[in-house]
């Protein structure tokens, strides 16, 4: 018969699967061989994984949020700083379960954004309650905000964005972080008490 050797990686183990095709009987027999990698192969894999992480865009994001958190911690805000993560967003608690205050940065869309995100079906109800006070909220904030009901998602958000921004341009991080911190402080000032009264 014609033997086909397929290799599958499963966590720390390599599975070699041999399939024997007997065309006369049209029956297939399967036999699995489990091979445990030795220490050398484990070390090589770990080194390659570490190298991949170090060269990844996520490392830049972690440094980006480190600078943001440092500036936010020095600002006049009751928001508790959190550990920067290697991802394109960072969210913070604002006193109500299912509601978070988040910052995001997108190198692809060349945009930075601050948003109040409402999770779940109850989030849509909370969003609608604040939408009824849109005029007063935007007056208190000082400018128009983006009110996004997100009909295709189980959630909704209120946000403000800056477009044409390059989060991967480290020379402009200071200015970007200043803007993000200013919006965070404004969101907390305008929304914290309003969010606390939501059902």
Task: Walk me through the structure.
The protein is α+β, with helices and mostly antiparallel strands. Helices cover about 40% and strands about 30% of the residues. The strands form 2 sheets. It has a 5-stranded antiparallel β-sheet. Strand 7 and strand 8 form a beta hairpin. Helix 2 crosses helix 5. The longest helix is centred in the last third of the chain and has 24 residues. It is globular and about 40 Å long. The N terminus is likely disordered.
Topology readout:
Blueprint lengths: L1 E9 L2 E10 L4 E9 L3 H16 L2 H18 L14 E5 L5 E8 L4 E9 H12 L2 H8 L4 E3 L6 E9 L9 H24 L3
Antiparallel strand pairs: 1-2, 2-3, 4-5, 5-6, 6-8, 7-8
Helix pairs in contact: 2-5
Number of strand segments = 8
Helix/strand-derived category reads: alpha+beta
Order of strands in the sheet with the most strands? 4-5-6-8-7
- Beta-strand content estimate: 25-35%
What portion of residues is helical?
Answer: 25-40%
Radius of gyration: 25 Å
Biggest beta sheet summary: 5 strands, antiparallel
The span between the termini is 68 Å
Q: Report the mean per-residue pLDDT as an integer.
A: 81
Which parts are unreliable, with pLDDT below 50 for 5 consecutive residues or more?
A: 2-37
How many individual helices? 5
Shape, per Cα inertia axes: globular
Q: What is the N-to-C order of secondary-structure elements (H for helix, E for strand)?
A: EEEHHEEEHHEEH
């Amino acid at each position: 018969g014609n033997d086909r050797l397929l290799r599958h990686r499963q966590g720390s183990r390599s599975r070699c699967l041999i399939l024997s095709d007997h065309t006369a009987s049209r029956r297939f027999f399967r036999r699995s061989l489990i091979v445990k990698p030795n220490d050398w192969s484990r070390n090589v894999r770990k080194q390659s994984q570490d190298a991949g992480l170090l060269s990844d865009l996520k490392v830049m994001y972690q440094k980006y949020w480190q600078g943001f958190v440092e500036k936010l911690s020095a600002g006049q805000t009751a928001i508790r700083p959190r550990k920067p993560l290697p991802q394109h967003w960072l969210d913070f608690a604002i006193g109500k379960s299912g509601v978070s205050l988040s910052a995001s940065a997108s190198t692809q869309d060349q945009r930075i954004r601050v948003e109040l995100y409402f999770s779940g079906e109850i989030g849509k109800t909370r969003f609608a309650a604040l939408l009824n006070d849109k005029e007063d909220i935007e007056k208190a904030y000082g400018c128009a905000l983006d009110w996004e009901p997100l009909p295709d998602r189980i959630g909704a958000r209120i946000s403000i964005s800056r477009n044409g921004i390059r989060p991967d341009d480290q020379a402009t991080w200071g200015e970007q972080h200043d803007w993000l911190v200013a919006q965070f402080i404004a969101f907390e000032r305008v929304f914290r008490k309003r969010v606390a009264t939501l059902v």
